[in-house]
Amino acid sequence: GAPNANGGKGAVYVYNTLTWAVTDTIHPPTQFNIAGGRFGASVSVYGGHAIIGQPGRADTASAFIYNDSASHWVLRNRVIPNTVNEGSLFGTSVSIFGDTAVVGAPNDYKDGVYGGTTTIFAKGTDSVWTQNISLTPSEGNNGDGFGTSVSINNGYIIATAPGNSSQVYGGGAYYIIQQFELNSQEYWAIV
Fold first, then answer.
1. Contact 149/159 with Cβ under 8 angstroms?
2. Least confident segment among 81-95, 112-126, 155-169
3. Among candidates 68, 97, 73, which has minimal Cα distance to 157?
């Protein structure tokens, strides 16, 4: 990603992994192609899906999911949390694996603190991505930055909180989030 390209509007460059030539350039969708949006601040690709974060502006903080159509990447969905908090920095980090995507918002307000959230989205049978859950640690504090970086793989998510000082002052923390299934329903929880 190149979040500072085009006057801070951002862009993502797609490369051929054999020749390292640029094969496609992804720009923010028209209504979100604004200065300071920082589209491409975070990028994750898995299979035929890519998720791109745009955390730069409070009014447009989002993540966008694209599908690979062989010749170029096509926008599939804009994902935002069910509750949008101004200044959350939603889209600072993104990760995708199979039909699940995770997005970090390290300055999000939840449960009385600006400690950050990690929001999980699932692709439905209609190929529309919707929110599954938004999580924050029970011991979260202002400035923890939960969701500063996220990564998902095979039913597990790791999310960092570099400002967390619950163990060592300013030492940071990471959290493991695990997927569970009960009565054919998918659940995620911090373990």
1. yes
2. 155-169
3. 97
